[in-house]
Amino acid sequence: MKPQTVKIQLAREESHYSIEIGGDLLAECGKWARKSLGKGAAKIVIVSNPTVFKLYGKRAQESLVSAGFEVTTFLIKDGETHKNLRNAELALRHFAQSGLSRTDAVVALGGGVVGDLAGFAAAIYLRGISFLQIPTTLLSMIDLSVGGKTGVNSAFGKNLTGAFHQPSGVLIDTSVLKTLPVRELTAGFCEAIKQGAIGGEALLKQTGDFLADFPPAEIRRHTEDRQFRARISDLIAAQVAFKASIVAGDERESSDRKDARSRKILNFGHTLAHALEKVTRYKYFKHGEAVGYGILFAARLSNSLALADEKDVKLLNDVVHRAGSLPSLANIDANEVFEAFKFDKKYLSGSLQMILLKGVGKPVIMTTQDIPQVLVKTAIKDLLKR
Fold first, then answer.
1. Residues 140 and 123 in one domain
2. What is the domain extent for residue 145?
3. How many C-beta neighbours within 10 Å does residue 226 have?
4. Same domain, yes or no, for 172 and 240?
5. Which of 236, 310, 349, 382 is the most core-located residue (most Cβ within 10 A)?
C-alpha cells in the first residue's frame, strides 16, 4: 500500500516539511532521513526510551547507518516526570560529546515525552539544529507531528519551558501500533476526538466510526488487516491535515488572537487535562486520558453557559466512551484542580483563556472573567463524581 503524504505549508518557507504515513516504513527511514536532511548531514543522535528502542531502535539505526549517517543514541526513561530540564541538559551534553554540528540532526523515536524533549534540545543546541520525528504512539502521530511545539515540564507547570522548532520531516509507521498497550491507544484516540470536536462533524464522525469498528482493546488483532491499515492511515492523515490547517494560519499561537481559527483552539480539553496531570504529579494519567476528561468537562461547561446543546454533550460523551476506559477520578480534590488552573500556559493578563464549544466544529475562546467561577467549580465537582 502506497504511503500517504501530508505537506505542512507554513508562513515561513524554511518551515515547510512533509509527513509520510503508512505501514512498514521504519525499515526505510534512512533513505527518508537523507531526503529530508540533504547531503550535508553526517551525524544523527537518536533520542528514544528503553522500551521503544528495544522494539525499533536497531531497525532504525541500521537503516540510518546504511544511508551514510554516523549514529549514536540517547535514552531517557518513559513518563512525563522525565521530561524535564535535567534530562534536556543531559541530551545537550550527549549532542556535544557526539560532535553534532549545525548541519547534523536529532531523530526523535518515541512518543510525546521523547518528541517534546528531543525537539526542545534540538531547538537550543547551537541555537537550533535539524530534527526528525518518528512518532511511535497514536497521540504523538496525530498531535506532536504537526506544529513544532517543544518543551519540558517543571515544578511550576507543564510545557512552560519550551520553544517553537519545526521538524525537517515526520515518518509515521502505523505498524508500530500493534505493540502499543490499550491505554496508549485510548490516550491517542481521546486526542483524536478532541480534534474532531473542534474540527467539525465530518472529522468527529470519521473518528467515532473508526472506534465503533475497531475498539482499542481489539486493535492488536487487526493490525495486519488491509482494511484496518487503510482506515488508520486515512484517519491519521485527516487528523494531521486538520491540525496543519490551523497551525498554518497561526504558527506561533499569537497571544492576542481569539477567533475560531486561532491555534489556541487546539487546547480544547487541555485546561482540565493539564490541571489533572499537575495535581497527580504527572504520574497517574496518560496525557490523552486527561484530555478525555478535559473534553467532558469543557462540553459540560459549554452547556452550562448555554453555548452547546445537550445533544452535543451526549455525542462527545458517547465518542469518548468508545475510546476506552479512563482512570478513576477518586481521591482527586476539586479545589486543588481549580487552583492548578493558574499554572496553565493559557493564563494571560490575570485571566485564564478557556476553549469551549458553541457546537461540534464551533470552538470559542473565553476568559475566566467572562465565566462565572461557580459554574467552573460545579463542572469540576460534577466530573469528579463520575
1. yes
2. 4-179
3. 9
4. no
5. 236
Q: What would the pLDDT profile of 318-360 be if each residue is shown by its tens digit? A: 999 999 999 999 999 999 999 999 887 676 666 789 999 999 9
Instruction: Say how many C-beta atoms besides its own lie within 10 A of residue 124's C-beta.
Output: 16
What pLDDT does residue 201 have? 97
Summarize the confidence of residues 255-259 as an average pLDDT.
90
Q: Which of 153, 179, 205 is the C-terminal boundary of a domain?
A: 179
| Same structural domain, 131 and 203 | no
Distances (CA, A) of 209 to 169, 190, 348: 29, 14, 38
Indicate the pTM of the whole model.
Answer: 0.94
Which of 34-38, 67-71, 153-157, 328-332 bottoms out in mean pLDDT, i.e. has the lowest?
153-157
Describe the crossing of helices 201-213 and 226-249 by its angle, rounded to 10 degrees.
150
Helix or strand or coil: residue 110? strand
- Look at residue 344 in the predicted model and tell me its pLDDT: 78
Given a contact cutoff of 8 angstroms between Cβ atoms, the answer to whether 148 and 164 are in contact is yes
Identify whether residues 218 and 238 lie together within a single domain.
yes
- Which amino acid appears at position 337 of this protein? V
Both 145 and 238 in one domain: the answer is: no
Which of 287, 249, 346, 28 shows the shortest CA–CA distance to 137?
287
Question: How much is the pLDDT for 343?
Answer: 80
